[in-house]
Amino acid sequence: MKVLGPEGLAGGEGLQLFGLLKLYLEQEPRFQPREKGLSLIEATPENDNTLCPRLRNAKVEDLRSLTNFFGSCTETFVLAVNILDRFLALMKVKPKHLSCIGVCCFLLAARIVEEECNIPSTHDVIRISQCKCTASDIKRMEKIISEKLHYELEATTALNFLHLYHTIVFCHTSERKEILSLDKLEAQLKACNCRLTFSKAKPSVLALCLLNLEVETLKSIEILEVLLLVKKHSKVNDSEFIYWRELVSKCLVEYSSPECCKPDLKKLVWIVSRRTAQNLHNSYYSVPELPTIPEGGCFDGSESEDSCEDMSSGEESLSTSPPSDQECAFFFSFKVAQTLCFPS
């Protein structure tokens, strides 16, 4: 086995890979959601007026459906989740605002990651997601999110570490890359992203856990040895690694079980009734405006846990009644795509 590190690779490849790893590890803390804010969400009981873990997880599943529908890449989904969690960990968000925030996170991530020709329009995303807001609401919310995150939207995520670790491992082994599928690893990462608890894990640790579990199933001693050296090089604490590895393993077992409903991976097809088609043009813009969102002081870590900035307002919540044919541009039938599965 080759020596792990820049000296183990020919030319400038080693310097580039390990220089990038050093950069990722330095940037990692800046782009992690505040643990105190995530803990507040985790501890919140379910009711009609507060953000609880179930609502956050459901919104991430909606993001996954949107990325699938618009053909966006995994990086767009992972970045959108990162932006969402960082924002939710800073602000007290009411459930009625969550739909608008989710759409904004998807659009902000798509503009960073996707080619210009692949970025969906704001109106298309509003229509497909059935978000009860207007384009002006989206623009205003995007500004709020960007300001609260200090315009640092392009983040270092677990997906970055996953790809980098994968490249480093196979630069130091004689095994073929095909035996460790990146598509499968990305699908497993998406499963973890759909659970709030994994937003507390360091991206470097989460990526290592996913690789470690997959390598163990392959029973490749050579790859496992290199991966352990990668773990040491990344200065990942043993107890922290073991803790998150157990949680990741449990999550993947649950999503891989026969009881987990697997989605149809065929391209989504929209079936629109004649009555709906006749009303599409008139109903396109017939959505209520999002209530004005007042802003207060930013969350200060020195204050009490209840001092998170509150995005609530005195307005009534948006209508939650089922949309009629006249109110919907399309029927949001891709809920089936929210159930996660892994490639074989």
From TrEMBL:
Ranges in coiled-coil conformation: none
Family, similarity comment: Belongs to the cyclin family. Cyclin G subfamily.
Organism: Erinaceus europaeus (Western European hedgehog)
Cell compartment(s), UniProt: Cytoplasm
High-level lineage: Eukaryota, Metazoa, Chordata, Craniata, Vertebrata
Name listed for the protein in its UniProt record: Cyclin-G1
Keyword Cell cycle on entry: yes
Pfam annotation, one family: Cyclin_N
Gene this protein is translated from: CCNG2
Gene Ontology cellular-component annotations: cytoplasm
GO BP, one annotated term: cell division
InterPro entries: Cyclin, Cyclin-like_dom, Cyclin-like_sf, Cyclin_N
Acidic residues bias locations: 302-313
Domain called Cyclin-like: residue spans: 61-147
Alphabetical keyword list: Cell cycle, Cell division, Cyclin, Cytoplasm, Mitosis
Top-level division of the source organism's lineage: Eukaryota
Annotated spans, Disordered: 302-322
UniProt keyword annotation of Cell cycle present: yes
